[in-house]
Amino acid sequence: MVELRDIVEKNGFIVFAASAFIGEHSYTDKVATNRPDTKDLQKAKEFGVKAEEKISFSQDLLNANKLFIKGNFPYKERKLGVKCAPETNINCTNCGICADNCPMEAISFNNYRDIDAEKCINCCSCIQKCPSSAKSFVHEHIIKG
């Protein structure tokens, strides 16, 4: 969260509130299954209301103190593995739902089997949204972690 705040501020934004919310894991439904639930969504809504109040009552956002967020600097070193992307099996019906839902536009609209591993962030949106279960990770980097 500290790193995200710093990136956002470096790009000219003012961070006045920050939070992390629970959600079902993108790789498996065995972690945080069916989350966010009603209680989670209520907490997120309450956070949004408090953030809105904070910005509404602030007289001078441009001169506000930097938002303190618990965390470490330097940031935790990430060991980025091999770039890989989901593969498409014979179940693909060329519906395009995968490409429509890829946040990185890594899936070609000309050929839904063509996924740019350099752009893919392994979010699994294409896997979760595919109505024919045609996308999956078969690369050992993902399967074995």
From TrEMBL:
Question: Pfam families per the record?
Answer: Fer4_10
Which superkingdom, per the lineage? Answer: Bacteria
Q: Could you tell me the keywords of this UniProt record?
A: Iron, Iron-sulfur, Metal-binding
InterPro entries the record matches: 4Fe4S_Fe-S-bd (IPR017896), 4Fe4S_Fe_S_CS (IPR017900)
Q: Is Iron-sulfur included in the keywords of this UniProt record?
A: yes
Q: Which residues form a coiled coil?
A: none
Domain named 4Fe-4S ferredoxin-type is located at 84-110, 111-140
Query: What name does the UniProt record give this protein?
Result: Ferredoxin
- Organism of origin is Sedimentibacter acidaminivorans
